[in-house]
Amino acid sequence: MMKERETYGINIAGLHRELELFQIKPGLRIAILNILGDTELVQACAEALAEKLADVDFDILVTAEAKSIPIAHALSVATEKPYVILRKSYKPYMGDALKSETLSITTGEPQTLYLDEKDRELIQNKKVVILDDVISTGSTLQGMHMILEKAGADVVAEAAILTEGERAKWSNIISLGHLPVFTD
Length: 184
Description:
Largest sheet: 6 strands, parallel
Radius of gyration: 16 Å
Number of domains: 1
Order of helices and strands: EEEHEHEEEHEHEEEE
CATH class: Alpha Beta
Shape: globular
């Protein structure tokens, strides 16, 4: 039997969700937004983010795998713009991939992001919107910026379903809401 966890209720794009709280280190918990399999939420968020991005001139969306892939796909359909996924592991078919390292708040472990060789051409000299499900520490965002700079892309906006933590730090992020962090 699964242990019942404390939750944090939030309204996102007109829908209500109860997000489970998880301890990521002693005295610090975060609410976990997991959009995988939540088609209703993904579609609503994509439509809401598309509205917020309507005045942004961009060519392509870029996100990191894996939890934000559904929102990237749905937002790509809504905006009629292609998307690229930065991978977290290298595969031989990725050829001369670019890479950058970041630190994940949810795992506490270093992560490497890779831009597949085939996607480098899609991004070079293009106006890019970086997309994530939740922006918390900014480490994944930083890793994405590093790769996109190496690829010769121009980041014109950053978007997420939610931001987390210090609200003022994320005032430039196009988002649908904000999550607090929970200290004991």
